[in-house]
Amino acid sequence: MLSSTDWPGKRLGLPESGSRSIARVGVRLAAFAIDWALAYVIAMAFFEGDGFVMMSIYAVMQIAMIATAGGSIGHLIMRMRVVRLDGRYNGVLRPALRTLLICVVIPAVIWDSDQRGMHDRLAGTVLVRV
């Protein structure tokens, strides 16, 4: 539990606000909506809106974008990045694990006191502001 002098990310050595602070819920949801809408449009345009195809498109976009650009299209539009706590390159396995857990849904809605979802904790990543 956070005390009145703590903020999400303090335990992780992140600032309270500004660059590299924990991205808050509103911008996370907006980024997710952008990414899901893109996957939906692609699935509708080329695959008749098949749900499994839409989830697969979403997953491929997440893994590719996080591994190469540090964030999905939605993350980048909302000025966020997925980073490792040690500051090193994410690689492909961490974004893949993170995305798989998001697709399972449950880990993405279980958060700790630093507002990190279980998917980020298990992948060793954190979603921060740019």
From TrEMBL:
Membrane topology field: Multi-pass membrane protein
Keyword Transmembrane helix: yes
One matching Pfam family: RDD
Domain RDD: 23-124
The entry's keywords: Cell membrane, Membrane, Transmembrane, Transmembrane helix
Regions that span the bilayer: 29-47, 53-74, 95-111
Coiled coil feature spans: none
Name of the protein in question: RDD family protein
Organism: Ruicaihuangia caeni
